[in-house]
Every structure is written in C-alpha cells, then in structure tokens.
Design a protein that fits this description.
The protein has about 425 residues and is an alpha+beta fold. It has three domains: about 120 residues, Aminopeptidase (3-Layer(aba) Sandwich), CATH 3.40.630.30; about 170 residues, Aminopeptidase (3-Layer(aba) Sandwich); about 80 residues, SCP2 sterol-binding domain (Nonspecific Lipid-transfer Protein, Chain A, 2-Layer Sandwich), CATH 3.30.1050. Helix content is about 25%, strand content about 30%. It is built from twelve helices and 19 strands. A seven-stranded mixed beta sheet has the order 1-2-3-4-5-14-6. A seven-stranded mixed beta sheet has the order 8-9-10-11-12-7-13, sandwiched between helices. Strand 11, helix 7 and strand 12 form a beta-alpha-beta unit. It starts with a strand and ends in a 12-residue tail after the last helix.
Length: about 425
C-alpha cells in the first residue's frame, strides 16, 4: 500500500481541510481554514512549518497516497482538559476531523490514523481521548465507551410556560459580541470546574464559536445572527444564553411561526437557570424553542406547567477512550474506599489491556499493573462508560458486558464509581 501518515502544516492544511469537508459534503473557503487555524487550533499559520518540534502544532494528521499524490484520510486531536467526578481535571485528546475518502475505504487507513492519534496522545501525557461520534458503531472497536448522554429538545411554547418566576435579584442584559467574549468565557470556566464532564475552552474557541459574517448577522429570511444575554446578580455574571431566531419571513406578524434556536445556555445556580429560561420563553413571535446537547438531568422538565410539550431525544454524547489506565483511574474522586483487580480485555487494544490493581480511600487512589486474578473483567470501553458515572456497572453487568463472580465486589465497584453529579459535555469538537 502506498499510504503513509504525515503531519499537517501550512503547506498542506488547505488540501487537508478540503479533504475533511469532502467527507461531510461541503467545501471550505480559504478564510474558513485560516480562521480554524488561528482560533480553534491557536496556531500562527506562518510559523507552522514542517518538522516542528512543538507538539501542539503536530496535532493534525493526514493519510497521504503516494500513488495519487493526494490526501485521502484526515484526523486530529484538539487539546482539552475535562472535569472528572469530584472536580479534578485530566488532559484529554479531543479526536476530531476524522474521515477517509470514499475512493480509499476498507484499506485500513482509518485504523492507521486512530492508532497514530492514540500514540501521540500517550506520548503527550494525555490520560484519555474523547470524541463526538458521527457513526455510533464506529468507535467502540477502538476502545471508546459512551461517557455522557445528551438530550436534544424541542418545546412547543403555545401550550406551556414556566412555573417559577425570575428572582428579583437577578438582572438580564443583552450584550454585544465584544462584551460576550469578555463575560461568557468567565461564566463558562466557573461552571466547568463544577460540572462533571465539562471541558475547558480557550478564548480562541469562543472566537470560533461566536463567528458570523455580515450576511449571517443581517439575514432577514432565514437564521438570524447571534443574540447574547448575560444574567447578573449584584453586577456579577452568573449565567448566559446565546441564540438565533429562525423565521419563515422577515416581517413580524402574529401568525409567524418563529423558531428560537438556543445555541447554549449555562448557569451557575438554579436561580440564574430559571431566569434565563423565563427570558427565552418571553421572546415574542416564537412558536418553537429548540436546543441541543443538554444534560440528561436538566431540570427544565420539572419547571414546565405542561412538561409534555418538551420533546426529549436522548442520544449518545461524548465517547471516551482510556489512554493511560493509571492516570485515568487515579484522576477522579470516588464515593468510598475499596480495592479490587480489574481486567481490561476483549477489544485488541494492546496499549491499555491487562490486569490492574485498584485501591482507593475515596480521595487518594493507587493503580498498578498486576498479575493477580481479576475480580472484575470488562472491555476498555466499559470502564470508560463507568468512569464518569452516567452509566452504571450494574447496567453493564445485566447486559453481560461485565464478568464478575463475586457479587460483593460488583456492588463495591458500582458503589465506588457512582456519582451525584450526572456527567454532561456541551463542547462540540
């Protein structure tokens, strides 16, 4: 085979990006590529040369076909920290941009790229990798397990309203994009330090997220530009929402069927959450509200006068793969003390499979490779699913994905890994 894995740099990034978009059905503008490099990747493109020793500049890869002299596969790993149960943070490779040209399917190219990205992540010292799966069946073969669930919502606003009024001590303010770029990252960072499954975000990420061109901003017939609203208590920012309006026409009539699309809503407490939802429900000429990537334990259902008007579609969220089992297992707080041996096997992930002794007092955990007989046997993907607490060991045991002959050890494992803070990831990559 003539395929080799190469790094991406300023000389091939435009071809690489077009190869990415070709898989997903569109073509990138040159300005879009430049914006991706500058804001999302935080790379100065003129400094992005071949043979660069900066690991953060070597996170994008391409499968190059020597025969056709073209890029036929793409991948990469964004740099993140993810909050684990108890409030610790672990370094995570955010796997993205994955695709193989239709002309080169079933040649092992995708596996070559995944193996390379996992090796790079391990060499960087990452504890885990995470991704949003375009095809949910694709990544389990590489050791990825379902780490979080997400809910995509639509709400019929004509037949329901919120039961709770806005706290009088909370002020809501429309802000322009510049102020949003100043206030919102601070609110988000405060939230992510407390929310199991949240990732950090760079300022560049917010620049990329809030981007809109003049045509988008002033669109009078389709999707509007972004509106930003910040919640304050005693002049301190405690929550935000940003959204678009999608109307069938640009003229406001009582019979317009407007849709308000919430791009993101984050709050630091229940009062600011209620205030922001009251604001959303108060926007005029809106028949439907939609929002994606909500946490599965979001309380809005219980705040609605008629909760049947909330259509909840629960699907897979962030998929997680162990990179370093020791760092991974030692990187969270557990519910109680316990000890057992865990065997990871069954997915041909030679870099992480084996037997590991696990001992914790809840706050401090020690993990080592072991030759002892395992108390619990599972696939690497199953441990990834248990880790953040969104899926329980008992659920996996009942589905025959966990082997455990000692019921007490199974109950101990399930108890130790359980969480009160349900995992939620709302950062798309």
């Amino acid at each position: 085979m003539t395929i080799k894995i190469v790094s991406v740099n300023k000389n091939n990034v435009f071809e690489w990006r077009n190869a990415v978009r070709r898989v997903f059905g569109d073509i990138s503008k040159e300005s879009d590529v430049e914006r991706l490099v500058k804001d999302r990747l935080m790379i100065q493109i003129n400094d992005w040369t071949e043979n660069n020793n900066n690991q953060d500049m070597n996170r994008l890869i391409a499968a190059y076909d020597d025969k056709s002299k073209s890029i036929v596969g793409t991948g990469g790993a964004d740099k993140y920290k993810i909050t684990t149960p108890g409030g610790n943070s672990l370094s995570m490779a955010g796997i993205a941009y994955m695709g193989t040209a239709p002309t080169h399917k079933r040649k092992g190219i995708f596996r070559m790229m995944m193996n390379e990205l996992h090796l790079q992540a391990r060499n960087r010292g990452d504890s885990l990798a995470g991704l949003w799966a375009s095809q949910s069946l694709l990544y389990s073969r590489f050791g990825y397990g379902l780490g979080t669930l997400r809910e995509d919502w639509t709400i019929n606003t004509k037949n329901t309203k919120l039961l709770k009024n806005t706290d009088k001590n909370i002020d809501l303010e429309f802000v322009n994009k510049d102020k949003a770029l100043s206030e919102i990252p601070k609110i988000y960072d405060a939230a992510r330090k407390k929310q199991n499954g949240f990732t950090d975000r760079t300022q560049g990420y917010f620049n990329y997220l809030f981007y809109e061109d003049a045509e988008t901003r002033h669109n009078k017939s389709g999707m509007s530009g972004l509106f930003f609203v910040v919640a304050y208590r005693e002049k301190k920012p405690i929550g935000y929402v940003f959204y678009n309006i999608n109307k069938e026409s640009g003229i406001a009539h009582e019979d317009d069927k407007g849709e308000l699309v919430v791009q993101e809503l984050v709050s630091l407490d229940s009062e600011s959450n209620i205030a922001l939802w009251n604001f959303i429900f108060g926007v005029e000429l809106v028949e439907k509200i939609s929002i994606n990537r909500r946490g599965s334990n979001d309380p809005l259902y219980f705040l609605l006068e008629n909760p049947r008007m909330l259509n909840r579609n629960t699907i897979d969220g962030l998929w997680v793969r162990i990179i370093d089992p020791k760092k991974f297992l030692e990187g969270r707080i557990y519910n109680s003390e316990g000890n057992f041996c865990i065997e990871l096997t069954g997915q041909n992930q030679n870099d992480i499979e084996g037997v590991y002794s696990f001992e914790t007092d809840g706050k401090n955990t020690k993990v080592q490779e072991s030759n002892s007989k395992p108390d619990i046997t599972m696939r690497p993907s199953d441990l990834s699913s248990c880790y953040f607490g969104g899926i329980t060991a008992m659920e996996l045991y009942k589905s025959n994905n966990i082997i455990c002959e000692n019921q007490k050890k199974l109950e101990e494992f399930s108890r130790i890994f359980s969480v009160t803070n349900t995992p939620w990831c709302n950062t798309d990559f």
